[in-house]
Specification:
This protein is α/β, with parallel strands linked by helices and about 350 residues long. It has helices spanning about 5-15, 40-55, 70-75, 75-80, 115-120, 120-140, 180-200, 225-235, 255-265, 285-295, 320-325, 335-345; strands at about 30-35, 60-65, 85-90, 105, 145-150, 205-210, 215, 240, 250, 250-255, 275, 280-285, 300-305.
Length: about 350
């Protein structure tokens, strides 16, 4: 990381030490195991926990399952070589889990809903479902006191139109006969497994359904619209919107996401799901324009085509009242500040 990136990251992590509600005391002397430690969410979970561990003397021990430890060590040596950190190499379907007991297990590992969704949907579905089942079975054997499954707002389907903001009781669903739904249906099946292990094996499993995010470490060259737009801005523009710009999303800052996930792990009600995201809706076209405004007033935005007359925009915006009412969680940063901090991180 550059000195500028380290400064921004430290400010974000320091901010997490003072959040209310705070999850940190409930993690004192915890033994935490995280699958997917090298992913975007895993990076933030490890950064935040080890930062709190060092500054609050939590005496936490952390283990992470990663597929390529050497590549991860090169990307984040301060995490991989941390004295409280143990790295295990392997993948969900074949890894022999450690025989040690862990008090808290966070299951993050999964192929993202990107190229794997079209190249090998059967393999993607297998990892999401059977990989999750292996982790759940091991969590029971490990005697875990808390289990967090990090799911996705995709479980509600990709073309939500009947309600403006989906809450956890929404019965919208993906099309089960569409192979492109393999990621969405895999996440749904994995959530069902969590419920079954809670009810039949008394594993205290809780589910976090995550929506769109923005912040440091967000890839700028993959299938994240916010990351692509920031990458376009840093390249001098124009910011290019491939579609008509009408779909509506919302974006939670990644430091807030880490905070929410730690609180849901430590405080969430077992057998329950919580939406994780911002409720500040924005169209993709407006997101592009606001990204441009954060970077430079002269930066151009190009939208590939006009919306069809009379069409209902696709909308994936969560209702997060459950997280607020039960856990006291709200986004701390609005969209413009989140975009500005992300742009600053990459500038």
């Amino acid at each position: 990381m550059t000195p500028n990136q380290k400064t921004i990251l430290r400010a974000d992590l320091d901010g997490l030490l003072a959040v209310t509600p705070s999850p940190w005391e409930k993690l004192r002397r915890a033994r935490v195991f995280i699958t997917g430690g090298t992913g975007l969410f895993g990076r933030w979970m490890l950064e935040s926990l080890l930062w709190a561990n060092d500054r609050l003397d939590l005496k936490v021990q952390v283990a992470a399952l990663v597929r390529r430890p050497e590549a991860w060590r090169e990307a984040a040596p301060h995490l991989a070589d941390h004295p409280s950190m143990t790295v295990h190499q392997g993948d969900l379907l074949t890894f022999n889990f450690p025989r040690k007991e862990f008090s808290h297990i966070i299951h993050l590992a999964a192929p993202s809903d990107g190229p794997a969704q079209t190249s090998d949907p059967l393999a993607l579905f297998d990892i999401l479902v059977n990989g999750t089942k292996r982790v759940l079975e091991w969590a029971v054997q490990s005697g875990a006191r808390r289990f967090l499954y990090v799911s996705s707002g995709a479980v509600y389907g990709r073309h939500i139109k009947t309600v403006p903001d989906v809450d956890e009781t929404c019965r919208e669903a993906p099309d089960p006969l569409d192979p492109a739904s393999c990621y969405d249906e895999g996440k749904r099946a994995a959530e069902l497994l969590c419920a079954l292990y809670f009810h039949q094996k008394e594993l205290p499993a809780v589910v976090a359904r995550c929506f769109s995010v923005v912040g440091p470490f967000l890839p700028l060259d993959w299938h994240y619209a916010a990351g692509n737009f920031i990458g376009d801005a840093l390249d001098g523009g124009p910011i290019c919107v491939a579609g008509d710009g009408s779909p509506e999303r919302s974006y939670l800052y990644l430091a807030d996401l880490a905070w929410w996930l730690w609180v849901i792990l430590t405080e969430g009600r077992p057998g329950r799901a919580y939406n994780v995201g911002s409720d500040e809706a924005v169209s993709i076209g407006e997101l592009a324009r606001r990204t441009a405004a954060c970077f430079s007033p002269s930066l151009k935005v190009e939208i590939a085509r006009e919306p069809k007359l009379g069409q209902t925009p696709q909308r994936q915006v969560p209702n997060v009242q459950r997280a607020w009412a039960e856990l006291g969680l709200k986004p701390r940063l609005g969209l413009d500040e989140a975009l500005g901090r992300t742009l600053a991180f990459y500038s």
